Amino acid sequence: VGNATFAAIYIDEYYVGYPVSNVTVSNNLINNSVGRSLIVAHTTGSLIEYNTIDNSTENGVHLNLVNDSIVRFNDIKNVGEYSGATNESSIYVLDSVNVTFNDNNITRNDYGIFSLDSTNLSIFRNNMYNDSNIGIYVVDSGSLGGFVDIYENAINITNEGIYVSGSSYYNLTNNNISNIANGIIFNQGDGI
User: Fold this and answer.
1) In contact, 61 and 91? CB cutoff 8 Å
2) 157 vs 167, residue with greater confidence
3) How many other CB atoms are found less than 10 A from the CB of residue 69?
4) Alpha helical stretches, state H, the chain
5) Does position 111 have pLDDT exceeding 60, yes or no?
6) pLDDT at 99 over 70
7) pTM passes above 0.85
8) DSSP string of 145-178, one letter each residue
9) Burial class (CB within 10 angstroms; exposed 0-12, middle 13-18, buried 19+) of 187
10) How many CB atoms within 10 Å of residue 190?
């Protein structure tokens, strides 16, 4: 899929007109997307795996209001600044619950995994290299009463490795963070 102007792949119950669940998006090559590459919104039980996303001006994978979903084994590179835009994420998650991100390779992007107002997240064994801003950014997740587990990620050559804010339910263990300005930033909240 190439040269999309809004989203190369767009899955949303409001778009199709009925509830969407148990969707698998797998083995796609998305290249030169002007806009978000892959959008999944208002769904339950989505599986996003084995996709290659290269040269997207906006988010590589964009999740909004998804529940009980997995994003794994994807290669995402050249998103945002490296493709002509700024402040974009390889994986962006908003207002979602019970989402797992594992074994993704994220290279040359503004942000690796960027999460706002989501809870019950597991972020593990992801490889992030040469990202220009922050490897993993999570804000306000635990204020919703859940947890965020961030472990066994490799983050190399970014401005900040892991940034967390607004929660007392963070578990950060066994992350390999190197060649960066700031390793882990904890801003506001009750503890890690």
Assistant:
1) yes
2) 157
3) 23
4) 13-16
5) yes
6) yes
7) yes
8) S--EEEES-EEES-SEEEEEES-S-EEEES-EEE
9) exposed
10) 10
